[in-house]
Specification:
12 helices; alpha/beta; homodimer; Dihydrodipicolinate Reductase, domain 2; 6-stranded mixed sheet
Chain lengths: 336, 336
């Protein structure tokens, strides 16, 4: 399977390492031979139709901070140019999420689909701003659009709701979908001020470069858009979400919650409307998880409420979700 | 799809009600038209090759305590005789679990498979005592053996581990797999004695007729056998489990755990060996759920630890898992 990889940060590198370390097993067990024919990062790109060497890619990135130096001839092709000129079966889109215009991810994805490539995106921007139309574009071009890694990182939340609960109707859900804000709120629960808890989260590298994505609830809202479209079939985009972040949560609020045996969590939910905001959750509710954990509770018609808890982020975890999407695509193609 | 239903207790009746209430949707959405051609309960049976009426089945059972009175001619065919003489595509086995010889479920299942019927079992007995050989028999006879409802009731734990985490290797798991003992231990956590907590659980109808199945950990051990075989590929049966129940847990043990911010839970785990026994679990561990809830934490190679929490039992919940198995079988048959 020929792959173009747009973005080569932590997730992209983890993925390539996963390909390297599991290559024998992927071929013998699933018939998957991932061949990365092009990689694009913010500083340049590199191409080899016969497949780039996984180890050399990672080493080059480590040494030069870009894949541009992979070969002696330095390639300055952009992601879009690569997608237009290099033959491939799948685009894996891992550039940073951007909720203003979703670029460059949006153009990567639409260009790839128009050229008949399947797309795996862990970039939430394009999905948050244009989920319904991207899905239509995929159907129109008869390609698959996969995005398991966008919600829950390595925890297969989307697949669980869609496949493990097949034959069942999910009526609503509520979840902690952003690990950074959960970490901050959890620490505030021990009496630390918002400012100190935020500083600690920054020191640990948990906060996005644009801190607003975490603190104002945008990241959680983007995930809510994806869940609402995919699980409930509601055609919404980011502006439809009623979104409040955690900046105004005070230690007093948290103490008040404690008196009710509750904790304040940033909850994304789908009850009557789609909302992201701080909410009191009973401490003995399975949803009330601490630290950087993510959790989501699905309420279904016949199977009651079911909660899934896992790490919501992490390079290897997200890479493992891309691999699952790739195996799904491999299987679907083989079936045709 | 022609179905023989062995056992017509809470689960069997919930299933038939589910067929009744969702019949239009099951046909239009999944192409499934469930036709129950025979039902067997402990007092008798009833047969109609053109399909029994769902409502009448439930009404008859309610009125006479058996389906035998469904038609004017009272049928005394046993389950095995029915399976030998009535043409059907699927056996749904819901008789009570028995961990001594697994009968009558064992003979129902083997007879059905030998006749080329697919089998859905929510009866844990046959699987606990003979999982490896039953799976072999299914392969030999080219039929499907499904058992989603045996672990987690309506919570699709087995499917999650097998399918949602496909491409991933689960290295170990630990879970609270029995709601009754969890209810008793949770109540003891509030200072109530074992005896009083047990009495309360009995009053609420949570305890099996043979209380040993819950209290001595047999039910949890049976589920552990199924998980170990299905998820880890270890060929074990019930006698291989190192199993201790909750009868010897004292209020002192629980108080001691509390001092460590822990609760005592009956944990079924697969670390180095397969064990069921009371164990201290940190209160902020996602696994540490209260009341009758079930929870299981899977640790995988690349996606970290993931916990699923849900109701472990209930008629409608278990019936919904049977329906999912039936839809899987329908889909597999359509694919051939």
């Amino acid at each position: 399977m020929r792959i173009i990889l747009c973005g080569f940060g932590v997730v992209g590198q983890s993925l390539v390492k996963l390909f390297e370390s599991r290559s024998d097993e992927l071929y013998s067990k699933y018939g998957l031979k991932p061949r990365v024919v092009g990689v694009f990062d913010s500083k340049g790109s590199t191409i080899d139709p016969s497949g780039l060497n996984f180890k050399k890619l990672v080493d080059t990135k480590k040494k030069f901070g870009t894949v541009k130096n992979y070969a002696s001839i330095k390639n300055s092709m952009s992601g879009v140019e690569m997608l237009k000129n290099v033959e491939a079966d799948v685009l894996i889109e891992t550039t940073a999420s951007n909720y203003k215009d979703a670029e460059p991810g949006m153009t990567h994805i639409t260009t790839a689909m128009k050229r008949g490539m399947h797309v795996i995106s862990v970039n939430k921007g394009p999905l948050a701003l244009a989920f319904p139309s991207l899905l239509e574009l995929a159907t129109y071009n008869q390609v698959m659009l996969k995005f398991s890694g966008t919600v829950g990182g390595g925890t297969p939340i989307l697949d669980y709701a869609k496949n493990s609960l097949s034959g069942e109707r999910i009526t609503s859900f509520a979840g902690i979908l952003n690990g950074t804000t959960n970490y901050i709120l959890t620490n505030m629960g021990t009496g630390i001020s918002y400012e100190d808890a935020l500083k600690d989260a920054k020191d640990k590298g948990y906060v996005e470069a644009d801190e607003s994505l975490d603190l104002d609830g945008l990241d959680a809202a983007a995930k809510l858009v994806i869940l609402a479209n995919w699980i409930l079939g509601i055609k919404v985009t980011l502006p439809d979400i009623n979104c409040t972040g955690i900046r105004k949560v005070t230690l007093d609020d948290i103490k008040k919650a404690e008196k009710n045996n509750c904790s304040i969590k940033l909850i994304a939910s789908s009850d009557k409307e789609l909302v992201v905001g701080p909410k009191e959750i009973p401490n003995d509710d399975p949803l009330c998880v601490n630290g950087t954990l993510n959790a989501i509770a699905f309420t279904s018609e016949h199977s009651g409420t079911q909660t899934i808890i896992g790490k919501g982020a992490g390079g290897t975890e997200t890479a493992s979700s891309i691999l699952r999407d790739l195996l799904d695509i491999r299987q679907e193609i083989a079936r045709d």
